[in-house]
Design brief:
There is one protein chain. The chain has strands spanning 3-7, 10-12, 18-25, 34-39, 46-50, 56-57, 65-70, 75-80, 89-97, 100-103, 107-111. It is mainly β and 113 residues long. The strands form 2 sheets. Strands 2, 4, 5, 6, 9, 10 and 11 form a 7-stranded mixed sheet that branches. The chain starts with a strand and ends with a strand.
Length: 113
């Protein structure tokens, strides 16, 4: 059974940093691209970053966020620097395995002074 569990969210001031982690199980971790999405209040869920291709990023986070993976620990991380209020959202870990989408429950990130 595929499981994804996010951690590391919280409240941070503008310009600050957070590191999100996603612990994965139930599939061959090293064989799949892992993704981070986010959903802000009243907005649709959007792709933030993917491990595919060594790391690909949505334009709003390029140069500020870095995705990384540890295949030995089955974790994928999202280092978020220079955070802005518009980064406030629930962040979700995602993987597509055998045509099925799997999501974690999400972790709240709030950027506010």
């Amino acid at each position: 059974q595929v499981q994804l569990v996010e951690s590391g969210g919280g409240l941070v001031q503008p310009g600050g940093s957070l590191r999100l982690s996603c612990a994965a199980s139930g599939f061959i971790f090293s064989s799949y691209s892992l993704n981070w999405y986010r959903q802000a209040p009243g907005k649709e869920r959007e792709l933030v970053a993917r491990t595919f291709g060594g790391g690909t990023y949505a334009d709003p986070v390029k140069g500020r966020f870095t995705i990384s993976r540890d295949n030995a620990k089955n974790t994928v991380n999202l280092q978020m620097n220079s955070l802005k209020p518009e980064d406030t959202a629930v962040y979700y870990c995602n993987v597509r395995v055998s045509g099925n989408e799997y999501w974690g429950r999400g972790t709240q990130v709030t950027v506010s002074s």
